[in-house]
Design brief:
Radius of gyration: 23 Å
Helix content: 10-25%
Bound molecules: FE2/S2 (inorganic) cluster, fe (ii) ion
Number of domains: 2
CATH class of the largest domain: Alpha Beta
Low-confidence stretches: none
CATH topology of the largest domain: Naphthalene 1,2-dioxygenase Alpha Subunit, Chain A, domain 1
Structural class: alpha+beta
CATH superfamily of the largest domain: Naphthalene 1,2-dioxygenase Alpha Subunit, Chain A, domain 1
């Protein structure tokens, strides 16, 4: 049986600059904001342990620089955006949107102080409703144009929620076929039955699991292909996007919902999610589009020793009730595993093959980066980036289709 060692776990979970995983993850673009939310005021964010401020410059372009003012460390999110950049509210230092210090009030006019300061700044781009950041070395790779970000269709991009847990356990949840029936079976009938067959494959972009379950009626099966793309994007069909499009024409783009587990720091992560339906005559409108932030956000409660007593004013109600939403169920479970899972104490099953594949894939790609190469999924060729059609399937299939799939898998 495969088991991750304590040392490997340490490597896989730490995300700061200079750590092996931190360096690998910095080779990719990460969604860190929602385009529509960023207006004239700057905002404070944290990505992979780095405190940053996100703002729109005078030209309307997103910019990302270090949050701590180089003068005396005030947070620049309290500052004001001006024609040339952002001005610290405390003593008025001015920064360009590339992080260059342009003015240093308090210094004589001929001061060279500003030229000696290297303030952090990172490239930002917008696509599919998100703002993305790239925090790795130059040359900057292309922002991958996955179809769920770039294709024509209906799209809803959200900050789904936050976890008080490491990014990796959240990422692993996205490629975990076994949990779906047990954790979500109460509200998601298509996955409530135990899988009949599950198998795993490596892809050009990462890993896929394929699963066949008994369907809603005799002679019908539910078939899902659920992908994980580097650096950890979970992408698959589900009832929210596939309804009405669950037997799409073969040339139609997959209706998928994709999720990033963005590392905020070692012990916190943010779920960013996009729901995508291709322009299709079969597809019904996205139900999620009409929901408010409060309705789609998953804010997990924490299980803690004697937790029920801590806020009780009378006799406490012992035990916990998980909210009935797929995202909420995942979020509560992820935080319950502890901030960083002690993987050396796991006992993995055959159905956990994807955990082994994923962790080995990360360790291998860490070595690629150490050797100076581009890891899996980094795109530099414009021609290959017109549109990257990402997989993800959720379909009701017949016994014949099932037979064909199983023959192909064998
Ligand atoms: S702390 Fe920002 S100008 Fe002084
Ligand atoms: Fe889940």
């Amino acid at each position: 049986m495969y088991r991750t060692t304590k040392k490997e776990n340490e490597i896989l979970t730490r995300v700061s600059a200079g750590t092996p995983m931190g360096e690998l993850l910095r080779r990719y673009w990460w969604p860190i904001g929602i385009s529509a939310h960023l207006k004239e005021r700057p905002t404070y964010i944290r990505v992979m342990g780095e405190d940053l401020v996100l703002f729109r410059d005078a030209a309307g372009k997103p910019a990302i620089i270090g949050a701590r003012c180089a003068h005396r460390r005030a947070n620049l999110c309290l500052g004001d955006v001006e024609k040339d950049g952002i001005r610290c509210r405390y003593h008025g230092w001015l920064y360009g949107n590339d992080g260059r210090v342009l003015q240093t009030p308090g210094e004589p006019p001929d001061s060279k102080l500003k030229d000696t300061i290297k303030h952090p700044s990172y490239p930002a781009q917008e696509l599919g409703g998100f703002i993305f950041v790239y925090m790795g070395p130059k040359p900057v790779p292309l922002l991958p144009r996955y179809h769920f970000l770039a294709a024509e269709g209906e799209r809803h991009s959200i900050v789904q929620g936050f976890g008080k847990c490491n990014w990796l356990q959240a990422t692993e949840n996205g490629i975990d076929p076994l949990h779906a029936g047990f954790l979500h079976g109460d509200i998601w009938d298509a996955v409530s039955a135990e899988p009949e067959t599950t198998w795993f494959e490596e892809t050009d972009l990462g890993i896929v699991y394929k699963v066949i379950r008994p369907g809603r009626k005799p002679g019908e099966y539910n078939y899902r292909e659920h992908h994980l793309f580097m650096p950890g994007i979970s992408s698959g069909g589900d009832a929210s996007v596939s309804e009405g499009a669950d037997n799409p024409p073969p040339d139609e783009l997959p209706a998928v919902t994709a999720r990033w587990s963005v590392p905020v720091d070692d012990t916190r992560m943010m779920h960013m999610r996009v729901f995508f339906k291709p322009a299709s005559k079969n597809a019904k409108p996205l139900q999620f589009k009409t929901l408010s932030l409060a309705q789609t956000r998953t804010s997990p409660f924490q299980v803690e020793p004697y937790g029920e007593y801590q806020n009780a004013t009378g006799a406490p109600t012992l035990g916990y009730t998980i909210p009935k939403s797929i995202g909420g169920e995942d979020a509560v479970m992820l935080d319950s595993m502890g901030t960083i899972v002690d993987r050396e104490n796991e006992n993995l099953t055959v159905a956990d093959e994807s955990m082994e594949m994923l962790r080995k894939m990360y360790l291998k790609q860490i070595e690629v980066v150490k050797q100076g190469g581009d890891p899996l999924g980094v795109v530099r060729d414009e021609n290959k980036n017109q549109m990257i059609i990402a997989g993800g399937l959720y379909r009701w299939i017949s016994p014949d289709e099932r037979k064909q799939l199983l023959e192909k898998a064998a």
